[in-house]
């Protein structure tokens, strides 16, 4: 059903383009006044009433098929375009403070900032001035 509707839509679209290109513009009547043909094939008014009716009919068919295809595609969709997308977490740079927190065992109650100065104090106390 959907394939048939797409084929009809494309054919009507191409036909509509062709029928619009067959019509002449509003300024073409002035050129016909100075020696143009009489267009007796389509009658005295020319091809305008016939082409207008064909254009209107093909435009209505084009719009109906467009709405029908939009309705069918909205009913057939099961998810979003983004449903298969994978969210990547940005790489986080670890700071020295975060690394120190990772190094401390979970049962330890000392803070990483307090552990560093205590470790540095015995080294400073062990040094004696060289006088």
Automatic annotation (TrEMBL):
Keywords on record: Cell membrane, Membrane, Protein transport, Translocation, Transmembrane, Transmembrane helix, Transport
Region (Disordered): 97-131
Subcellular location: Cell membrane
Pfam family, one: SecG
InterPro entries with a match to the protein in the record: SecG
GO CC aspect terms: plasma membrane
GO biological process, one term: protein secretion
Stretches assigned to coiled coil: none
Gene Ontology terms, MF aspect: protein-transporting ATPase activity
Membrane-spanning intervals of the chain: 51-72
Residue ranges, compositional bias (Low complexity): 109-131
Superkingdom in the source lineage: Bacteria
Membrane topology: Multi-pass membrane protein
Family: Belongs to the SecG family.
Function, in words: Involved in protein export. Participates in an early event of protein translocation.
Name the record gives this protein: Protein-export membrane protein SecG
Species per Swiss-Prot/TrEMBL record: Desulfofustis glycolicus DSM 9705
């Amino acid at each position: 059903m959907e394939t048939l509707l797409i084929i009809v839509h494309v054919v009507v679209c191409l036909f509509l383009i062709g029928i619009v290109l067959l019509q002449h513009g509003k300024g073409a009547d002035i050129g016909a006044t100075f020696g143009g043909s009489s267009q007796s094939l389509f009658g005295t008014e020319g091809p305008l009433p016939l082409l207008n009716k064909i254009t209107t009919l093909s435009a209505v068919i084009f719009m109906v098929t467009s709405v029908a295809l939009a309705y069918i595609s909205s009913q057939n969709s099961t998810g979003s375009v983004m449903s298969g997308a994978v969210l990547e977490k940005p790489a986080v740079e670890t700071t020295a403070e975060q690394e120190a927190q990772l190094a401390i065992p979970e049962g330890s109650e000392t803070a990483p900032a307090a552990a560093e100065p205590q470790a540095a104090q015995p080294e400073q106390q062990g040094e004696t001035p060289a006088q």
